[in-house]
Amino acid sequence: MTAATHAATGGVGDVPPPVRALVTGGTSGVGLALARQLVATGARVAICGRDAARLAAASATLGPRAHAVACDLSAAADCDALMDVAVRALGGVTLLINNAGVQQALDVRALDTETLAAQARRELAINLEAPLRLARLALPHLEAAARAGAPAAIVNVTSGLALTPKKTAPIYCASKAALRSLTIALRYQLEDAGSAVRVHEAILPIVDTPMTAGRGRSKLSADAAAAAILRGVARGVPEIRVGKVRIFMPLQRALPSVAARLLRDG
């Protein structure tokens, strides 16, 4: 640890500075599991959500090291305010986990054009635009942390459906495919700029969360998914393949038609 790092973090010897994490969608499922596991390691965490009751319940579960922020990620102004509040509450941000997502089952032929467009705009705003906006807002804080010697990272949570879509959620699948491409391109840009901020993609299988209630079998638990993500971040793995995704990705490359059949009606 350099003298500059030591002074900036207030650390002693080689004790690393505490993680200061912003986790979107932190009121349930994988987001809440991530926040709970981060807090258990001594991290300070900010979570966000739209439902006040669920925010209060999550905050009570997480305790005093967590800060809950009411936020609608489909609104740009809310994203800006979220980053502002998180930075002030945590004393900076060293880890951004873009976990929040919405999945709407929709039949393109069954909806009128304006309804379809409105639903698509909201889903794309939450699943794609918000992660991009928050990453850009977080970068100055992450860069400052990295210059001071603290590990700094962005984690974008995608899905096996980014690789092969299912028929019932066309916008969700498209948004996750776009987020996957965005994550890779952002990693290239930061690498070429000499930045120490790491960019991770966490690719999830079907996980047992409120989003997947009543769908699928043999789901991975939210706790197991969160633990796998945090292990991957700690090890510096750029593409964190979680659970059955480790098997699915080689299958998708070798036998894409088989992979497509497996997920088509999922």
State the main characteristics.
disordered N terminus, two-stranded parallel sheet, 9 strands, seven-stranded parallel β-sheet, 266 residues, single chain, 9 helices, 51% helix, alpha/beta
Notes on the protein architecture:
The chain is α/β, with parallel strands linked by helices. The protein contains 9 helices and 9 strands. Strands 3-2-1-4-5-6-9 form a 7-stranded parallel beta sheet, sandwiched between helices. A two-stranded parallel sheet has the order 7-8. Helix 2 (29-40) crosses helix 7 (222-235), helix 4 runs parallel beside helix 5 (113-147) and helix 5 (113-147) packs parallel to helix 6.
Tell me the layout of helices and strands.
Layout: H1 3-9, E1 20-23, H2 29-40, E2 44-49, H3 52-62, E3 66-70, H4 76-90, E4 95-98, H5 113-147, E5 153-159, H6 170-192, E6 198-204, E7 207-208, E8 220-221, H7 222-235, E9 239-241, H8 245-254, H9 256-264
Parallel strand pairs: 1-2, 1-4, 2-3, 4-5, 5-6, 6-9, 7-8
